[in-house]
Amino acid sequence: MAPEDASLLISFVLGGRNDGYLGDFKWRLSTCINYLANNLAALHCLSDAEVVVCDWGSETPLAEALDLDEVARSITRFVRVPPTIARMSQKDSPFPYVIVQNAGIRRARGQFIAQTDSDILYPLGSLERLLGLLNAGSYLGTPLDKALFVASRRQLPLAVAQKQPGPDEIDRYLTLYGNMLKLDRLSVGFLAPSALTLMHRSLWEACAGYDERLIYWEWMDIDLYLRVTQRCPWFDLANSGVHLYHLEHKKK
Predict the structure, then answer these.
(1) Number of domains, the chain
(2) 195 to 3, 109, 121, 129, 143: CA distances (angstroms)
(3) What is the mean pLDDT of residues 170-182?
(4) What is the CATH number of the domain that holds 162?
(5) Which pTM was predicted?
(6) What is the residue range of 201's domain?
């Protein structure tokens, strides 16, 4: 990652494949990106951010399959890994999360890079607090390029998500019930499960991203956190009002 590539404040990096994973994956991913982009627009911050989607092995590219509105399209870039290369790289793993995320992170142009899941909702107020934090220069006395940030998440219930609510319905539901939704507490010492992993690009480079030997599900995020927290402090952004929500889906 060359410093001159950091032309934006923040990059949101997501990954996925056009395969209907755990239900209507295309709807969840489209909703995630549209909701994020339109809240950035409401804050007049579209020029500060981008969304990078690593499309891992889709036969029909996600760029063609997702229902993104004009605002979302304007800030979204797709990194497509063709099926033949994907199958060779993932070996016997169904989805090598670490390789997928690293591919997107390497191509991010933000000073800060937020690895986030493909079905996380960023409400307007939370996004405003997040961007305000990144413009502050430090957090509780710690320089921003020397800190690891995660965010606890709450679950938007499956019964609600299955109805495929629009943005206004989502906002109303979160306003009424957001504080009462199930909270996924971070495991003591492991900082997981979280809704995002946010670091300055220099820290992503210093830790070399995710360990690409860990191509199977579980542990890859914990491994990253354990390595990074040997050199810098970590903070849960939920403690500063950055409340994020996961679109609950069918179990594996």
Answers:
(1) 1
(2) 26, 21, 9, 15, 22
(3) 97
(4) 3.90.550.10
(5) 0.94
(6) 8-247
